Amino acid sequence: xRTLVIGTVLLGAxxxxxxxxxxxxxxxxxxxxxxxxxxxxxxxxxxxxxxAAGAGLFRAVGAxxxxxxxxxxxxxxxxxxxxxxxxxxxxxxxxxxxLLTPVVLxxxxxxxxxxxxxxxxxxWLANAASMLLxxxxxxxxxxxxxxxxxxxxxxxxWAPALACVVVPVAAVALLHRRELRGRYTVADDExxxxxxxxxxxxxxxxxxxxVGLVSGAPVWIPATVAAVVLLVVTAWRRPRALTPGLVPxxxxxxxxxxxxxxxALQEAGLRALLQQDLAGxxxxxxxxxxxxxxxxxNNLPAYLVLEPxxxxxxxxxxxxxVGxxxxxxxxxxxxxxxxxxxRALVRAGVDVSWRRYVLLGLxxxxxxxxxxxxxxxxxx
Length: 380
What we know:
Layout: H1 2-20, H2 25-54, H3 57-68, H4 73-91, H5 93-110, H6 116-128, H7 138-147, H8 150-175, H9 196-213, H10 220-237, H11 249-277, H12 283-296, H13 299-310, H14 314-326, H15 336-348, H16 354-379
Helix pairs in contact: 1-11, 2-9, 2-10, 2-11, 3-4, 3-5, 4-5, 4-6, 5-6, 5-15, 6-8, 6-15, 7-14, 8-14, 8-16, 9-10, 11-13, 12-13, 12-14, 12-16, 13-14, 14-16
Membrane topology: Multi-pass membrane protein
Transmembrane segments: 35-62, 74-91, 97-113, 118-135, 155-176, 219-236, 248-266, 286-306, 315-337, 357-378
Subcellular location: Cell membrane
C-alpha cells in the first residue's frame, strides 16, 4: 500500500511538472518511448512467476533442492545460493524477493534449521546477483540500449556479476559457519501437486521463457508470450486463480512515478549539476555515487539521476550499475526487493532485525561494490 501511495505522489508531481513546462513534452514522450518496454516486461514476468508459484513450481523446486542435499545443511544452503542466483539473473531480483524467499524459508524451517543464513543470502543475492543480464534488474533494462545488445551487455557485466555474487556468499558462509554445519532430516513424504498438468505446463513455460530472455529478442516479447500462454492454460485448469492482483499495480505506479519525477528533476537542472560534480570521475567515483544514492533514496531513482553522467561510456555505465545494483545492502529502502523480502520474513516468523541488517550491510556493501568495480576494471 505504501508503494502505491508513494508512486501516486511521485506520478502526480511529475504530471504537475509536465503541465507547468518544467518537464518539456518532447522529453516526456521520449521517456514513454523508452520505458514502456520495461514496464511491459515487469508486468508480464510478474504474471508468469505468480501463476507458476500458484501452480506449485517454486515449492517443487525447493523440495527438489532439499532432497538432493541429502540431509547436509551446507549442501542445502549451497543449493539455495544457486537457486537465488538463477532466479535473480533470469527472473529479476523482485521475483527472488517475492516468490523465492517464502520457499527458502519454508524449506529451512521444515528441515528444523536456523533460517537466518538462508534468508540473508537470499536478499543479498537478490540485489548483488542482478548484474549479469538486462532482465535481472530494472536498472539494467534502462541501461541496455546505451551498451548495445545483450551480448555486448554480458561481455561487460560477467566479471563484476561474478565478483558481486562471491562476496556476499562468502560473508554469509563466514558469519553463519556454525549454523551451516551438521545435518537435517530429509522429508520422505512430499505432498503431491494439486494439479500436475498445470505444474508441468508452468515448468515448460518458465524454461522456454529463460531461453527466450537470452535469445537476443527484446525481453518484453518472450515475457509477454509466456504470460499469455500461462494465462490461457490457467484459465483452462484453474480459472479462479486469474485475478486483477496478478498485475503488480503498486509496482507499476511506483516505477512510473519514479521515472517521471526523476526526468523532471533532471530537466530542472539536476543533470547539469551532477555532470559538473562528477565531471572526470572514473568507475570508482561513479559506482560510489550510485551506491550512496541507492542507500540514501532508492536504487531506481539513483540510477535515473546519475545515468546522464555515465551514459557516454559503457565502462562508467556498468560501474554505475554495480553501485546501484550491488550497493543497496545497507538501508531497508535501498531497493524494493529488500522491503518485499522483509515482509516475507515477518509472515514466516523469522527474525532478522533491521539493526543487524544495517550493520552487516555497512561492511558487506562496500566490499561487494569494490569487488565488482575491481573486476570490471581488470577485465575491460
